[in-house]
Amino acid sequence: MDWDPARFTLIGLPMKAYMFINSMRGQSIALTKAIRGVGGVLAADAITGDFDIIASVEVRDLTELRTAMGGVQALDGVLKTTTCMVLSD
Question: What pTM does this model have?
Fold first, then answer.
């Protein structure tokens, strides 16, 4: 059976995803705080490594996921995002 993210909304389970964010130099701390205010974002932390920030997202469906992603991407200082959907608990 192919994995269909839409089926999760039919049985009432939330969709979870992690967003990995690259920010403009020197803006990761302030941007982390702003990301925490985006709808659907449960938590955001500044990290070390290839990305500057990681955000945990929980939404009801793909439409809400796109809205949360758009909210993060629209913030000043965001250079790039990579979103990874969680396949299981």
Answer: 0.83
pLDDT digit string, tens, across residues 3-43: 555 554 545 668 999 999 999 999 999 999 999 999 999 99
Tell me the fold of 18-85.
Answer: Alpha-Beta Plaits (3.30.70)
CA–CA gap between residue 37 and residue 89 (Å, rounded): 25
Instruction: Give the Cα separation of 44 and 57 in Å (integer).
Output: 9
Residue 8 contacts by C-beta under 8 Å, 6 or more apart in sequence?
14, 15, 61
CB count within 10 Å of CB 36 equals 13
User: Phi and psi of 87, rounded to 5°?
Assistant: -90, -25
Residue 20's DSSP bridge partners are 54, 82
